[in-house]
Each structure stands twice: as C-alpha cells, then as structure tokens.
Automatic annotation (TrEMBL), chain A:
One Pfam family in the UniProt entry: HATPase_c_2
Domain Histidine kinase/HSP90-like ATPase: residue ranges: 30-138
Protein name: Anti-sigma factor
UniProt keyword annotation of Kinase present: yes
Source organism of the structure: Geomonas silvestris
Keywords: Kinase, Serine/threonine-protein kinase, Transferase
One function term, GO molecular function aspect: protein serine/threonine kinase activity
Entry-linked Gene3D superfamilies: Histidine kinase-like ATPase, C-terminal domain (3.30.565.10)
InterPro entries named among the record's database cross-references: Anti-sigma-factor_SerPK, HATPase_C_sf, HATPase_dom
Automatic annotation (TrEMBL), chain B:
UniProt protein name: Anti-sigma factor antagonist
Location of the STAS domain: 21-111
Residue stretches in coiled coil: none
GO MF term set: anti-sigma factor antagonist activity
Length: 141, 112
C-alpha cells in the first residue's frame, strides 16, 4: 500500500454469517500494510476480532428488523494509523457505562467491548443525527 | 456447526471442525455441550485443534459449558489451542478457569 490514505467502505446484511467475510478483510489489510513493523499475524487476528465484535454489536443494536438491513463498516488506513467505524441505527448505548468484566465471576457474556478496548488504542461510541458510530483507532507504528 | 464426537474411557471428546468459533456458530457448540451433560455424561473434552479464531461469543459458549459441567457435577476441559486462540483466553483471564491441555490424548489421561 502506498502512503496515501486508503478507505474501504463496506455494506453487508446484518447477519452473523457475514462475520467471517468482514474479519477476513481485516486480516488482509494487516498483511498488506506497507510500513508496519510489528507482528503482522497478531495484528491480523486483532483486526479480525475487533471487526467481528463490532459487527456483532451493530447487529445487536440494529433498529427495527427489515430484511435488507445493512451494517456499514468504513476502514481508513493511513501511514501511521488505522480507523474502523461501524454504523448502526439502533437505540445505541453508553459505552462509558460498560465496565470491564469481573474476572472473579464467570459470565457467559460481556467480553466484546473489553476485547475491543484492550486491542485498540482508542474507542468511542457516539450518535449523529441518524445513526450511531462505533469508532476504533489503532496506531501502526 | 461441524462437530465430531468420540468417546474414550467414558470421556466424550467434541472436536470443533471449524476455523472460526464466533457469534455465528457458537450457539451450536453451547447446545451440544449442554445436551451431553443433560444426558448424564460427566466428562467432556472440547478439542479446538482446527479453530484458528475465537471471539467473545465463542469464549462465552465455553464458559457456559464449564458452568453446565459444574451444575451437573461434571468436568469440561479443553485441548489443542492454537497460540492466537490461547492468547484470547489469557487476555480474558479464562486460562485460569479452564484446564487446558496440549493434545486430546494428554487431556484424556488427566480425566482418570
């Protein structure tokens, strides 16, 4: 990949069967980065994971069910950082109210946002006039 | 989900024959483990040799299986984790919860 920003803009049906497709795109991006000096296979797994978790989150928070409902994912790759934005049009939630999992208690759920926060450098969830945006950034240096 | 089942010395081994254990297919694994304990099986081993990728839902399905084992006075153990999968157990501290073995054979010996 050259120095200019690359933007990948994807829309897929809000179905879990597309998780592997989205995850694979993240893996391919990690392997193609021009200047990344870290462990590419680890980065590939991490991008696969945060895309998977974010898409599941968008599916869970999606608005009223319609067959053609789509999840939009925009990945922006620049020289030094990578930004993933995932859009949903549901009720949304307050990301700051989500506590890390209690490691002493065995819960089936509640590790998704924790994993995203652990693997990305910054995470925010905000609402604009028509949708919610989960934004995740990672430095590539 | 593609699962293969084998019984050795009263231990049911479930081989997850999938590259991904995620929100799309983990409910199937959760249901399969639950069914085994409800049928009265006491020792279940989940072998993840072919699983290259696990997400929070996959981890959650295994936690559910572990809790199912406890409530039925049984055991659920894991074997053959690939390194990236193992690192997800470490990140979520679940490596302290599960007994994890390098191979199915070593796990089977440990049940005795």
């Amino acid at each position: 990949m050259e120095g200019n920003a690359i933007e990948v803009d994807i829309k897929v049906p809000n179905k879990t069967r597309y998780l592997s497709l989205i995850g694979r795109i993240g893996e391919d991006i990690a392997r193609e980065l021009e200047r990344y000096s870290g462990d590419r296979e680890t980065l590939a797994y991490h991008l696969n994971l945060v895309l998977t978790e974010a898409m599941v989150n968008a599916i869970k928070h999606a608005g009223p069910k319609e067959p053609e409902k789509l999840v939009r994912i925009v990945i922006t790759i620049r020289l030094d950082d990578l930004t993933i934005r995932v859009y949903d049009d549901g009720q949304g939630f307050d990301i700051n109210s989500i506590q890390p999992p209690n490691f002493e208690e065995l819960e089936d759920r509640g590790r998704g946002i924790f994993l995203i926060r652990s693997l990305m450098d910054s995470v925010s969830y905000r609402k604009n006039c028509k949708e919610n945006i989960l934004e995740m950034k990672k430095k590539l240096v | 989900m593609n699962l293969e089942q084998e019984t050795r010395n009263d231990i049911v081994i479930l081989y997850v024959k999938e590259e991904r254990l995620d929100a799309h297919n983990s409910v199937d694994l959760k249901a399969a483990v639950q069914k085994l304990f409800e049928e009265g099986k006491k020792n279940v081993l989940v072998d993840l040799k072919e699983v290259r990728f696990i997400d929070s839902s996959g981890l959650g399905a295994l936690v559910s299986g572990f809790k199912n084992a406890i409530s039925h006075q049984g055991n659920l153990k894991l074997s053959s984790l690939q390194s990236q999968v193992k690192s997800m157990f470490e990140l979520t501290r679940l490596h302290r919860v599960f007994e994890i073995f390098p191979s199915a054979s070593e796990a089977v010996e440990n049940f005795q």
